[in-house]
Predict the 3D structure of the following.
Amino acid sequence: MRRLLAATAAALSAAALFVFPGHASAAGLPDFDFSACPAPPADADPGTWRCEAFVAQGVLTIGDRAIPLGEMRLTFSEGKVDGKYAQVFGELRHAPARIRGTFGAAIQLKYGGYSDFQSDDERRGELDLYAALRHPLLPKECTIGTLGAPLHSVVKDDPAVPFEVISQNPTTVKFGVVDSQLALPGTSGCGPLTRVTDEVLGLPSASGKNTFTMATYVQFKPL
């Protein structure tokens, strides 16, 4: 994100949902994985490209139900082609996260095929997602949104988790983002349990009734 380093440093006020367990290094940071960094395009401007590795803790709130999503990892590369900003998506990794009060159901976020991580004065970035629902009684095709009709999330800076520069070498930052306008459709591909699944999760749920929040560490690596 082009404007990350222009933000003002501030302390992170992390709530219990945003603890980063199990992956901290000796310095208290998560371990960053650059193995999924996409290579710059063949016509990339030399010396302008870098990879960004995200390690985030997210919460999806549907109505009055808060679903801690656990750790999410995302990588992409950005730079210039013919003097203009360009980016290439790498990978989104998210392990299924248990949904409390659903008799063992879990949710797993998947990449929906579109991303724009160039920040501006209006938003931090945009990302298309869909969510696979996991349960022994649900078919594997059961999802909220689909790859063909994904959830479109536009995230803005979250004042509860202000931007902070952690390190200059390597460049490492942390910040929070929030999408309070995310619309969630009814489930797809859930077979005979579609109606029950929708009722349990409170779907569909209109824009303004849901919140997608992430507290994120990012490290940058020149390509």
